[in-house]
Amino acid sequence: MEYFWCFIAALGAGVGTGLAGLSAATVMVPILIVLCPSFAGETGAYHATAIALASDILGSAFTAGIYIRHRNIDLKRGRIMMICIICMCVAGSFAAFLVGNVVLGSFSLILCVGIGIRFLLKPDTQRENTVAKGADLNRRAVATSLFYGLTIGFGTGFVGSGGGMMMLVVFTAFLGMNRKIAVGTSTFIMTFTAIIAFVSHSLIDPAILFDDWKILILCMATESAASIASAQFANRVNGRTVGLVTGAVLTALGVIMILMKILL
Q1: For residue 111, which of 155, 67, 62 has the smallest C-alpha distance?
Q2: What's the pTM?
Q3: How many CB atoms lie within 10 A of CB 1?
Q4: How far is it, in rounded angstroms, from Cα 108 to Cα 46?
Q5: Which helix (H) or strand (E) holds 135?
Q6: Contacts (Cβ under 8 Å, ≥6 apart) of 219
Q7: pLDDT tens across 196-246, in order?
Q8: Which of 82, 94, 186, 247 has minimal CB crowding within 10 Å?
Q9: What DSSP character marks residue 136?
């Protein structure tokens, strides 16, 4: 039964990555820590975080590849964010190991609900007048990229999140990208941050690789397949539809997980 819940967690994570560039931790970590006994111990949430990061590597890479094929990526406007996020995600990974299982697990559940409500209230953060692809960054955009890049990078390592949702908001609301280009750019960045954060988690606690390798392979394969299918869908529909679907799924999932954590 545990493998079934791991499959469901990875499936949901892949759909979220392909549709809106969400990291696997948003969906996967809450399900693993609540429904899978293997992740109920002292370091359970930390291991679940690492598995989410590993799943993000291939899921984000395949998703980014599809968006690149549709020419929906803009690294010129996203390069500062990418550098800042990569530099900070290792520090976040060390902090996650220090704070303990209870704090990290509860934070993941709250994050899932919060992101879901955000998508329901505002399905599409895209500006009415988007900035041309490859346009230069002005001073305000550079400052915005630095601030959010550093904070998102720390969160990437701490929560096991690739920072996809936050990058989506920054790229669309502050840097003027359209939604599809924002998702393509954020998933490209997530591929590299997920690698770095997963390696950091594994070096800090090598038991992840030896104790949970079967679950790790299952989750990576499932998320990759789901992200490919959902990314193909997302490139064919409007942003509002994708946002509403993503918000409804995440909100329902988060609320159910919180209730089960309280009752069980």
Answers
A1: 155
A2: 0.82
A3: 8
A4: 11
A5: none
A6: 6, 9, 10, 13, 24, 28, 51, 52, 54, 55
A7: 888 887 887 888 888 888 999 999 999 999 999 999 988 887 767 777 777
A8: 94
A9: P
